[in-house]
Every structure is written in structure tokens, then in C-alpha cells.
Specification:
Layout: E1 5-7, E2 10-12, H1 14-28, H2 32-40, H3 43-55, E3 62-66, H4 72-78, E4 83-88, H5 91-104, E5 110-113, E6 126-132, H6 141-151, E7 152-163, H7 171-181, H8 183-191, H9 194-206, H10 210-219, E8 223-230, E9 235-241
Parallel strand pairs: 3-4, 3-6, 4-5, 6-7
Antiparallel strand pairs: 1-2, 7-9, 8-9
Helix pairs in contact: 1-9, 2-8, 8-9
Length: about 240
């Protein structure tokens, strides 16, 4: 195993990445949802709606929403009757999610500080595992995928919403220029933090492409793996089943 991992365009030790990613999300937690709207023109809401339709949460199901942070995915799944455990390695992000749930009068969600690579949950605990825009920030993605497989029940399903690399000619170049030049400036304007958003954009560029990530999901033990690209692969929904 390599002694370094990527932190944006830098190569750092695993310990340093974990600490620095923690710092990024502690910094942006309070403005995270506002920035998502600004960066995507509100489209992240449509992507998340589509993602949850793929998950098909059912009444009474136990679902682990990893890197669930501010609760966007969990709130949607709870509305379908699922019992959702919202987990994140960053307590600041979870704190924002809990405040949002309280303001909406939502109860019944479980909130748990968890490292995706070393979950504290028992084997075969959940019917579904979801992670949206979080897997690329994990230090060792392969470990997180194996943990997802471990905590799922037989017949359990894995769903991941993540940025990828668009293959649409022309659009790829436009988005690349926008993301590198504009997004960090938006971060500075809205949250007072340019560097954190520069990292988040760079982390997208270092994330495996769609076929490579799908292969990693299969190597973790999942079957019937599938990827559905949106906007030519700018965003993708990955899925797999545990048998």
C-alpha cells in the first residue's frame, strides 16, 4: 500500500489527509449548503432527489447515511418512512444537520460520529448504505467500501452519489475552467474560505473515473454493480448489491 494519499493535488500521509479533510469540513460546515446552491446553481437538489429515488427507501428499513453531514439525504429518506442513521467523521457537520432537523421538527433520526473506514456498527446491521459527495474525501476508499459491505444485510444495497469526470466534448473544458477559477472565489465570498473549496475541486480531479470506481465497488464484494452518469459523468450514481 502506498505511504501517501491524495489531498487535492498534493500527496500527503494518510494521517495528514484525515486531519486536513477534518479541518476543511469544520471550516465550511456552517455555509456548506449555501455553497452547494451557489456552486451548482441549485442542481445538487435535483441530483439528490434522483439519488434517493434510486435508493427506494421503504418504511421500517434501516439505512446508514455515511458522510451524511447536514442531513440532506437523510431528510429525504426519512420522509419515505425509513429509519436513518446519519454518520459523519466530522462532528461540526453533524451538529449543523442536527440543528436543521430540529428547526424542521424532525425526530427519529440517529446521529453518530463515525469513520467510514472503521465503523462501530455490527455486521449485517443495515438494509441500505448511502454516501453522497463524501467517498472522495475518505483517506482509504477501499477500506470504506469493505466496511459498507460488512455492515449491510444479505440483499442490502449500496448507493454512492459522487462527482466524476464528464465526457461531453466542450462541456468538460468549460466546467474545468469554472471549477478551478470561479468556485474557490465563491468560497471566499460566501464562507470566507478559498483554500477549502480549492481542495474540494482538486479532490474531484483526483477521484477515480467511473469505470475504475465501479471496479473498486466490485472488488469490495458487491455484485450487479452499476453506474448512471449525469451531465455526461460530471456526477454519477454508483450502486451494488450484497448477496
Amino acid at each position: 500500500m502506498s505511504s501517501t494519499v491524495s489531498f487535492g493535488y498534493e500527496d500527503v500521509t494518510p494521517e495528514e489527509k484525515t486531519a486536513r479533510v477534518g479541518g476543511v469540513f469544520s471550516s465550511v460546515a456552517r455555509k456548506y449548503d449555501i455553497m452547494n446552491d451557489a456552486m451548482s446553481g441549485g442542481m445538487h437538489r435535483l441530483w439528490k432527489d434522483r439519488f434517493v429515488r434510486h435508493v427506494k427507501p421503504k418504511k421500517g428499513e434501516r439505512i446508514l447515511d455515511m458522510a451524511g453531514g447536514t442531513g440532506d439525504i437523510a431528510f429525504r429518506m426519512q420522509a419515505k418512512g425509513a429509519h436513518v442513521t446519519v454518520s459523519d467523521i466530522n462532528p461540526d457537520m453533524l451538529g449543523v444537520g442536527q440543528e436543521r432537523a430540529e428547526k424542521r421538527g424532525l425526530t427519529g433520526l440517529d446521529w453518530s460520529v463515525q469513520n467510514a473506514e472503521v465503523l462501530s456498527f455490527e455486521d449485517i446491521s443495515f438494509d441500505a448504505y448511502t454516501i453522497a459527495f463524501g467517498i472522495r474525501n475518505v483517506t482509504h476508499i477501499d477500506k470504506a467500501l469493505r466496511e459498507a459491505h460488512r455492515v449491510l444485510k444479505r440483499g442490502g444495497r449500496f448507493f454512492c452519489l459522487e462527482f466524476s469526470t464528464t465526457v461531453w466534448p466542450g462541456f468538460a473544458e468549460v466546467y474545468d475552467a469554472y471549477s478551478h477559477r470561479v468556485v474557490p472565489k465563491l468560497g471566499k465570498l460566501i464562507s470566507g474560505d478559498e483554500d477549502s473549496y480549492r481542495y474540494l475541486i482538486e479532490s474531484i480531479r483526483r477521484f477515480p473515473d467511473m469505470p475504475s470506481f465501479e471496479r473498486m465497488i466490485g472488488e469490495a464484494g458487491f455484485v450487479q454493480t452499476r453506474v448512471e452518469p449525469m451531465l455526461g459523468g460530471l456526477v454519477a450514481i454508483h450502486s451494488g448489491w450484497k448477496i
